[in-house]
Structures are given as structure tokens and as C-alpha cells.
Amino acid sequence: MLELSRRNLMTGGAAAAAAVTTAPLILAAANAQAAGGAVSPLTGVYAYKMGDAEIIQVFDGARTFPIPDNFIVNLSKEETAKAYAAQYMPAGQLTITFSPLIVKVGGKTIAIDTGNGLGANAATKGAVGNARHSMAAAGIDPKSVDIVLISHFHSDHINGLKNADGSPAYPNAQIMVPSVEQAFWTDESNASKANGPNKGNFAGVKKTMDGLKTTPFDAGKEVAPGITAVATPGHTPGHTSFVIASGNKSVMVQGDVTNHPGVFMPNPGWHLMFDNDAQTAEATRRKVYDMASADKMPIIGYHFPFPSAGFVEKSGTGYRLVQVHALS
């Protein structure tokens, strides 16, 4: 049974360091940002302080493509197209953005997910795979990263672990992965338990993870200074979110609890084709957003429009995202 609440989110080492608060985040422009704005389209960097932690969102890019059949599996393709058109996307198409995270806290530099990777950057002519370029703009050398936390094993989250030539992208980092996630995707016999879009993920996981030393972790534990892992399954069996806590402030890094917030947050019962267990993913979504809205806890979404942080409010039978704005 999924148990998600303010209390058990903060179990483990992070509880001693901080408690959830309703105080808003105070945002400040990063050095790499353009004067007069919080986001520079040239650097893809958005940074702010939260207590003693510095959070740096690095834009990996965006893909626009024709809406696949069954993209929302319990909605017709026509209704799906209307939902994305309502977000002012080109007719019959959708856009997905990708935003990994860098956290500097407790003397450590921590990456949360890695983007599509430099190989994808070349293959897509710069549409995605820009996280490393954004890190460079923020003055972050991948060799300086101490820990990489992986939320789940989909390619847009793990492919950045390697350079285009297959060498480790973070050569000095401890690569930490959810134990449930690792056990599922590294056992090819589990392909029978994966839905259609996920069956092909096993080969990609093998290619990316081969040769990398990983450290598995369990949910409910502090996995880095002030960062607690939270089980949020459904999108994948071991999908994990993270709560970053510093001082009396906290934020949840929700990974892929939902995809585009303008489409799925008002309609939490809509099921994305990439959610391996749609019913569990929906239950997770509702529990996470009920908690976030009740506690006024800000969240960061990997596929939220950049910059990818905001607050959740209940709206009708679903939710809406109120994205944050820079405060100088």
C-alpha cells in the first residue's frame, strides 16, 4: 500500500535537518542568467536558494512530434488532440520538455536525473540533450558532481549518464538508483510485466548501465544531504521522487508523477502510454498532489514547462499548477 503523507515523507535523516513549511521559495537569478529576467533562453539555467541549498534547474531541451495513437490510453486520439491544442500546441502535435536538476547542499554537488545525453543532442541537432551545455553555462563541471540520483530508468532520465562515446559522463560521482527500479529493468524476464511502450526499454537500460558502478537505495531513506527518497510508483515499478529539505523549507522533485501539467493535472485519471501501471500511477498522482496542495509544498516536475517549479492547487475534480516567478 502506498503511504504518502507529510510525516512519512520526512522520515529518515532529512527530518532532523528540516520540516515541511508553507513558506514560499525565494528565487534569485543565477550568474548565467540574462540581466532583467530569471530565465535566459541562451543558457537554460534557473537557480535559486532554498535555506542553505542552491537548486539549479538545467534545461535539457524539448521535443515536438505528432500525437501517437493511444498517447492517452483512456482517451480518443481526437480528444487527446483537443487537450494539447488547448495548451496552444500545433494542431495534431505535442511538445515534451526535459529538465534535470543540480543541487548544491552540505558541501556536495548532486545531480537528479541526467537528461537525454550528448548522443541524443547530436542525433536531434540540439533539440534535446542540452543538460551538459546548460551545466557549463552555470559553471558546473560534470567532474565536480559528487552524487547522481536517478528517479527511474527511462532513457530521457538515464542516457545522460554516458558521453556520446560511451564513457562515463560523471566520472567522480556515486550513481545512486532505486533498488526496485534496478531489479525490474535489469531482469529481461520482466518484459512480460511491461506494457507495450515499456517492453523496448530493457535493451536501452542494458546499453546505458553496462560498465557503470551503481549504488541501489530504498525509498524512505536519506540518500544525500537533506534529500529523502520517496516511493512514487506506477510510471515505472520503482519510480522515485525526492524531497529536498534545508532549514525550514522543502520542495518535492516529482520526476514523472505526471507529464505536461496543463493536460494531466486537471485530469489525473488520464493515463499516459508510458505509465507502466496506469492505475498505480493515477493513485500516486492523486496522493502526491493532495499532499502538495494541502501542505503548500512546492514541486519540481521533470516535464513541466521550464522553469519547472510551482505550487499545486485543487481545481474541480483535479489540480492545477501555479508556476513560480523570479523574485530578485
Automatic annotation (TrEMBL):
Range of residues in the leader sequence: 1-34
Protein name as it appears in the record: MBL fold metallo-hydrolase
Organism: Undibacter mobilis
Pfam name, any one: Lactamase_B
Metallo-beta-lactamase domain segment(s): 96-295
Similarity annotation: Belongs to the metallo-beta-lactamase superfamily.
Record bears the keyword Nucleotide-binding: no
GO MF entries: hydrolase activity; metal ion binding
Cited PANTHER family: QUORUM-QUENCHING LACTONASE YTNP-RELATED (PTHR42978:SF6), QUORUM-QUENCHING LACTONASE YTNP-RELATED-RELATED (PTHR42978)
This protein's UniProt keywords: Hydrolase, Metal-binding, Signal, Zinc
InterPro entries: MBL_superfamily_lactonases, Metallo-B-lactamas, RibonucZ/Hydroxyglut_hydro, TAT_signal
PROSITE patterns: TAT
